[in-house]
Amino acid sequence: MTGQPLAARIEIRRAQFTVSAAFEVPAGECLAVLGPNGAGKSTLLGALAGLIRPTAGEIRLGGRILDGRVHVPPEQRRVTLLEQKPRLFPHLSVVDNLAFGPRAQGRSRRQSRAVAETWLSRIGLSDAAGWKPHRLSGGQQQRVAIARALAAEPEVLLLDEPFAALDAASAPQIRRMLSDELARTRTTSVLVTHELADAWQWASRCLVIESGRVVEEATPAQLAAAPTHPFSAALAGYAVVHGVWSEGALVAGDDVLPAVAAHDLEEGESVFGIVVPHEVTVSRTAGAVRSRVRSVSVHAGRVLVESDGGLVAQTPVGVIPPGVGEPAWFTPTGMRVRRLRAPSETSAPGRGSQPRPGAEVSAGPASAQRDGQQDR
Ligand SMILES: Nc1ncnc2c1ncn2[C@@H]1O[C@H](COP(=O)(O)OP(=O)(O)OP(=O)(O)O)[C@@H](O)[C@H]1O
């Protein structure tokens, strides 16, 4: 089964909360949706699945309109939602769970059973065909849930943190299985995740959402190399410092941090700075920011020292770092600073114009606007 291109420009209004987003996912590719808790990620997936009706705008799948002038109900969309919990039908056997999708699509009982058995063998659970789901482990249940989702041959698979409830032992195997199957079936997918590493492994593009708005759209590599939003920067492992731009430095409270502006900034503007540990030095005697050591840790042979203010320094090999609770000076040497944009002036595609019911989805990917907007 080959997936279809998915395009959406929608607004979903809920009690005291509105999600608006516009994006396109080419056929067979994956879009990662990232954002803090409560940002609206699941709401967006719910709309794509047809469970929540958008208040305005349009969702298109291939040549079909799913929402806009019409509302296609969930069971007729060929869009499947896979959540953290497997949600298998408890009263059906494992093989009948897998046969459910093909059967619902009108395949004969025998054909559906054959599809189900092929999937069972693919996920290594042929011996459990007649079992009820409760006899399976959590990881096995999630494997069946993935197989059940794909056995229905969806044109789009929506993945809402599908690995979050898995234990460390079964997660890598299930990630690999899902990744292999999505590639094999060329299914278009949308993955909600909190991990940039997942986005990097799966997705060709990322949408970062905060408070119901798209604040950044980029490839995983762009997000890691040059994030334009504090949340994206934190996801990518940068220390993020908020402050104002003054006389060529980032001023955060009483601290004046040496920094380089990533684009033109005005005096007194609200900004955020990003820096990685190897661009921060720590000293007992002198530096830019006096703080206290919150934690000391070792990652891949590198000693990382975190300040109370959130700066993380990497100490040179052979140097004994200040201990936890001790005062120390932290100096960022490679801090890059960007303007802090209000949510209303973010790179959300379509900003400035509210989507109308039945409005056309724009032809060009929202990402085309990225380079022009990020350095305003
Ligand atoms: N059924 C509902 N009715 C009204 N508001 C809701 C409903 N469900 C969620 N919300 C609100 O919508 C907002 C977005 O919730 P949503 O679950 O989409 O966020 P999320 O980004 O998926 O969060 P998380 O990462 O915690 O799962 C929240 O403020 C939430 O309180």
UniProtKB/TrEMBL annotation:
Annotated ranges, domain ABC transporter: 1-236
Pfam families assigned to the protein according to its UniProt record, in alphabetical order: ABC_tran
PROSITE patterns attached to this UniProt entry: ABC_TRANSPORTER_1, ABC_TRANSPORTER_2
Keyword annotations of the record: ATP-binding, Nucleotide-binding
Key word ATP-binding present: yes
Species the sequence originates in: Gordonia cholesterolivorans
Keyword Transcription regulation annotated: no
Domain of life: Bacteria
SUPFAM superfamilies associated with the record: P-loop containing nucleoside triphosphate hydrolases (SSF52540)
Name under which the protein is recorded: ABC transporter domain-containing protein
Segments for region (Disordered): 338-376
